[in-house]
Structures are given as structure tokens and as C-alpha cells.
Design brief:
Strand order of the largest sheet: 4-3-5-7-6
Radius of gyration: 16 Å
Distance between the termini: 37 Å
Structural class: alpha/beta
Low-confidence stretches: 1-20
């Protein structure tokens, strides 16, 4: 049996006040068009209780500019995504400032939990937000020296096609904004054809 997540204090410098973190709520409903899957919540997201709340995170801008949603939203409105058939979850619920502190057991447990969510909610496409997630979930499909290709992959999770997107974090310097936007637009086209 897994232990429930521990509440941890967040430093004053990050939030402006001392708070405790709680796992971010998934934004799910049955029969989603797309289930977006992040690695884990960052400190700011956990502090404010909303997904992709980092100041430099481009997720909200990308889903609007790509046409996945018809109006601009901010992280404060993450609960609205299911209105457009979009859902949000993370592989790992534990908050961290970076992914270097996450271990293989957390990823393994996270994959099992993700597959249960996919089986329950039956999205048409699972969109992994980052090459790191893809490499962890499908190590046999990646080559160390070359990142996997963005777009629709030839793998599935719980019988659902997997689409690889770049991580929208401001820390991701591997992809330009235009490359990210092209990938999100390709996802919109793929989701429309499903």
C-alpha cells in the first residue's frame, strides 16, 4: 500500500507567504479528446493549486494559439479545460523544483496510476508533455543520443495512442516557441481526425 503524500511547507520566497502543498487535482472527465500528461507539479503550481502556473510556462498560450481552446485562459482557469474535451494529470504528484530529485520507483508507480486513469476516462489521445516522460515510459523506443520525434508516436498507453509534445516549461531551451506551437497545432489536427 502506498503512503499518502506528505504536506510540505513552501518557502516564503517562492509564494510570498508560508503555505503547505497538496497534490494538484486532476482535471478529468470521461471521453476526453486529449489527456495532457506532465511530469510533476512545480513549486509555484503546488503553491497556487493550479497546473502550469510557472511564470515562464507557455502551456496556456500554446493551447490557445494552436486552436485547442477558443479563448485565452490562465492557470487559474485550469478546471475549465474539460469543457473542450481536454484533461490534465501528472505522472508523479510530488512537488519539486526540478525533475532531478524524482526516482525510478515514482515513475514506475506513476505509470501504473496513469494507465488506470486512461482506462477509466478513455481519452482519444494521450499527449505527453516532454521527451523526458516519453523516455521514462518507453525506454526501449528511444536512443540516448537522439530525442524521439515530436508528434503521433507508434506506441500506446492502455490502448490509447500517444502523442509527444515538447515540455512547455520556460526551462526547456531545446525547442523554439514556433516548434512548440507547430507540435500543438499538429495535435489539434490529429485530435480532430480521431
Amino acid at each position: 500500500m502506498t503512503k499518502p503524500p506528505q504536506l510540505r511547507p513552501i518557502p516564503h520566497a517562492v509564494t510570498g507567504m508560508r503555505q503547505t502543498t497538496r497534490p494538484l487535482p486532476d482535471r478529468l472527465r470521461p471521453d476526453l479528446r486529449i489527456l495532457f500528461v506532465g511530469i510533476n507539479p512545480g513549486i509555484r503550481s503546488a503553491a497556487v493549486g493550479h497546473h502550469f502556473a510557472g511564470h515562464s510556462n507557455r502551456f496556456w498560450k500554446l493551447i490557445h494559439e494552436s486552436g485547442l481552446i477558443p479563448l485565452p485562459l490562465t492557470y487559474r482557469e485550469d478546471r475549465r479545460l474539460p469543457e473542450w474535451g481536454l484533461g490534465l494529470t501528472n505522472i508523479i504528484s510530488r512537488t519539486s523544483a526540478g525533475i532531478d530529485v524524482l526516482d525510478s520507483a515514482e515513475y514506475r508507480d506513476g505509470r501504473a496510476a496513469l494507465e488506470r486513469k486512461i482506462a477509466r476516462y478513455r481519452p482519444r489521445i494521450v499527449a505527453l508533455l516532454g521527451v523526458t516522460i516519453f523516455r521514462v515510459l518507453f525506454p526501449q523506443r528511444t536512443k540516448p543520443a537522439r530525442p524521439p520525434a515530436l508528434g503521433l508516436s507508434n506506441v500506446q498507453l492502455a490502448g490509447v495512442p500517444v502523442f509527444l509534445l515538447p515540455n512547455p516549461s520556460g526551462r526547456n531551451a531545446h525547442y523554439s516557441y514556433q516548434t512548440m506551437l507547430a507540435a500543438f497545432r499538429a495535435l489539434r489536427q490529429e485530435a480532430g481526425s480521431q
